[in-house]
Design brief:
Layout: H1 23-41, E1 53-58, H2 64-74, E2 79-84, H3 96-106, E3 109-113, H4 117-127, E4 131-135, H5 141-155, E5 162-166, H6 172-184, E6 187-191, H7 200-213, E7 217-220, E8 231-234, H8 246-253, H9 260-264, E9 272-275, H10 287-290, H11 297-315
Parallel strand pairs: 1-2, 1-3, 3-4, 5-6, 5-8, 6-7, 8-9
């Protein structure tokens, strides 16, 4: 039995973040995602990963990322192998470099979800096979592809839309959204306290991309920054590894909660709400907004699977 062919110009590449990807390349993978979603909803069965294997390395727990990678790879005939920190010696007894060289001899690709961006970069450098960043403290590229897929699905286009991130502007979601929005021409704003504004490094990276795509990047602690936003986006206030800061962080971010008043402050009746999940309701978002018709979080969650399948088909 032979695996079905899937033509892609990106075979062998890794996805560590979207910095080195052109807007055209990002849109091409987005097109793949719409294709596989259509095929899935029609009940089509394909075997495009037949005979392939992927190592799924998880330092951080996940529902959507693990489910998406395992189901997307497995239903296409491939064999995913889950590896937690209890299963391998990554960066402890065995260096990341040595782990990469071992896995590169045994697998077709690697997914890494963990803390350090340098670890996913080392895996890509030394494994010799495609590596996909399933989340690090710096970037979450697979999530933001699902986010812009959801925006395009809902509005019919991307260029000229305005997405506003509300909350901790330094986290991996805010950074990754700024990056992909600046690439594809989505105006990106951040509504965050000054103490949690995006770092200068990511702004410096994204500014030339935004200039090229005619997107605007705006950062403010004033509520007026949400005006005219087509989508409000938020994430948990306390990320994994920062649990000790919960009380301080919640107090600081309370004015940036996405609630009915903040949605109304956009001045648009059709503004949608997005969240990468899991959500802590009544902290970063009220139950009222989360369960409202404006909330597209379940479409967004489903799109994780289709975009991750598209990424794997493109690279592996």
């Amino acid at each position: 039995m032979k695996a079905e062919k899937f033509k892609s110009p990106f075979k062998g590449r890794s996805l560590l973040n979207w910095i080195d990807w052109t807007p055209e390349e990002i849109n091409q993978i987005l097109d793949y995602a719409f294709l596989v979603k259509k095929q899935s909803h029609k009940g089509e069965v394909h075997q495009r990963f037949l005979g392939k294997t992927i190592a799924l390395i998880f330092e951080k727990r996940s529902t959507r990322t693990r489910s998406s990678f395992e189901t997307a790879f497995g239903e296409e005939g491939g064999h995913p192998v889950f590896m937690s920190t209890d299963d391998i010696q990554l960066g402890e007894k065995e260096s990341v470099k040595d782990t990469a060289r071992v896995l590169g001899r045994m697998f077709s690709a690697i997914e890494f979800r963990g803390f350090k961006q340098k670890h996913v970069e080392e895996l890509a450098e030394y494994s010799g096979i495609p590596v996909i960043n399933g989340l690090t403290d710096d970037f979450h590229p697979t999530q933001v592809l699902a986010d812009i897929m959801t925006l395009k699905e809902h509005f019919g286009h991307l260029k000229g839309l305005t997405l506003c991130f509300c909350g901790d502007g330094r986290n991996n979601m805010a950074r990754s959204l700024m990056l992909i929005c600046s690439k594809v021409g989505i105006n990106f704003s951040v509504f965050a306290p000054k103490e949690l504004s995006p770092d200068e490094e990511i702004i410096k990276i994204c500014t030339p991309f935004a200039k090229q795509s005619d997107a605007k990047i705006t950062i403010s602690n004033e509520i007026s920054v949400v005006k005219n936003a087509d989508a409000l986006y938020t994430d948990v206030w306390v990320s994994m590894g920062e649990e000790a800061l919960k009380e301080e962080r919640c107090k600081l971010l309370q004015p940036y909660q996405v609630n009915k008043e903040l949605m109304a402050a956009t001045g648009k009746a059709d503004t949608i709400f997005l969240h990468c999940l899991p959500a802590v309701k009544e902290q970063e978002v009220t139950e009222e907004v989360f369960e409202s018709d404006a909330s597209k979080v379940w479409d967004e969650a489903e799109n994780r699977k289709h975009t991750i399948k598209a990424i794997m088909l493109a690279l592996v």
